[in-house]
Amino acid sequence: MECCKTDLEKVMRKGTGSTPQDIKCYMKQLLQGMAYCHSQFVLHRDLKPGNLLIAEGGIVKLTDFGLARTFGAEQEVLSPEAVTIWYRPPELLFGATKYTTSSDMWSVGCIFAEMWLGRALFATEPPHTELSQLRTIFSFLGTPVEKDWPTVKKLPLFVEFESRAPAPFEMTFAGLPSDAIDLLKQLLSMNPAKRISAADALNHPYFENDPKPTLPENLILEVVTKDKNNGGGVNGGAGGQKATESSGNFQATSSSSAAPPSSSFAASATPTARKLTWD
Length: 279
Hints:
Layout: E1 6-7, H1 8-13, H2 20-39, E2 42-43, E3 52-55, E4 59-62, E5 69-70, H3 90-93, H4 102-117, H5 130-141, H6 169-172, H7 178-187, H8 198-202, H9 205-208, E6 220-223, E7 225-227, E8 233-235, E9 241-243
Parallel strand pairs: 6-9
Antiparallel strand pairs: 1-3, 2-5, 3-4, 7-8
Helix pairs in contact: 2-4, 4-7
């Protein structure tokens, strides 16, 4: 694969690519990649912005398949500790060892939300534990009930949480188009059996409705800064176009919940998926 100079996490941290059209372009490419992986019976199991490289011309590349596994008609026993914890679905946090493509789709939903908010939707403070992560998820989506998720209490590490009603999506994502909110709700369904697939998500009205997605070659990938030694010229650029200022929804709203960097950022406290000795 060619050398990619940036990734989605870096683009978000720089405050570029914040328009609804840009988000739709990134989301469409991500779903196309996941639809292909799942059609080839591959679970990625570690989707996050830092693992979505952006090549010349604004093409998104799925990377870091170190935790990926194949799946088939008979479900194999898999580790529940796959997936970086901020992007890990509730069934894995409850210890599920048999899961399917819906686990990746939860991560896709988290990335979609992060592009709109400018911060990880389910970010937690260290230490990053399964219980604290579940508590953060339930504070937004409400505690699961058997009517909506009949098998939840059968999960190996299920624990009862204090009952809590879900927060309105429209309040957290104020100004978001209704079609985007509907897609996000289907991606972040707590019941994995009800989570939308990548192929079905690509046919969601969100991608048919206006505004149309930005063309990949027109994506803004890097902020331009003035070069004082070059007569007020500009620097920067990693493929695609350049922005003259940093603004928009990709800006993190607080340091404690900033968009989590990839593992290459050594100073970050971002959790990473644990490397395991078993599948």
